[in-house]
Amino acid sequence: MDKVQYLTRSAIRRASTIEMPQHARQNLQNLFVNFCLILICLLLICIIVMLL
């Protein structure tokens, strides 16, 4: 179990030190925003369908 925790911690540490290009970060943010908007729309559609 300690080995697994150590491996996860080191992997997280390694991933957090990776430098990301600015345009890649921008694309990721846009993707995340679009994903959230789609989820919100789906939720609203579900609520409207339940109310009808």
Automatic annotation (TrEMBL):
One of its GO terms (cellular component) is mitochondrial membrane. It comes from the Eukaryota. CDD domains: Phospholamban. InterPro entries: PLB. It is found in: Endoplasmic reticulum membrane; Mitochondrion membrane; Sarcoplasmic reticulum membrane. The chain crosses the membrane at residues 31-51. GO terms for biological process: acrosome assembly; adenylate cyclase-activating adrenergic receptor signaling pathway involved in heart process; cardiac muscle tissue development; circadian sleep/wake cycle, sleep; locomotor rhythm; muscle cell cellular homeostasis; negative regulation of calcium ion import into sarcoplasmic reticulum; negative regulation of heart rate. The keyword Transmembrane helix applies. It is a single-pass membrane protein. GO terms for molecular function: ATPase inhibitor activity; protein homodimerization activity; transmembrane transporter binding; transporter inhibitor activity. Keywords: Acetylation, Endoplasmic reticulum, Membrane, Mitochondrion, Phosphoprotein, Sarcoplasmic reticulum, Transmembrane, Transmembrane helix. Pfam families: Phospholamban. Belongs to the phospholamban family. Reversibly inhibits the activity of ATP2A2 in cardiac sarcoplasmic reticulum by decreasing the apparent affinity of the ATPase for Ca(2+). Modulates the contractility of the heart muscle in response to physiological stimuli via its effects on ATP2A2. Modulates calcium re-uptake during muscle relaxation and plays an important role in calcium homeostasis in the heart muscle. The degree of ATP2A2 inhibition depends on the oligomeric state of PLN. Homopentamer. Can also form heterooligomers with other sarcoplasmic/endoplasmic reticulum calcium ATPase (SERCA) regulators ARLN, ERLN, SLN and STRIT1/DWORF. Monomer. Interacts with HAX1. Interacts as a monomer with ATP2A2; the interaction decreases ATP2A2 Ca(2+) affinity. Interacts with VMP1; VMP1 competes with PLN and SLN to prevent them from forming an inhibitory complex with ATP2A2. Interacts with S100A1 in a Ca(2+)-dependent manner. This is Phospholamban. It comes from Ursus maritimus.
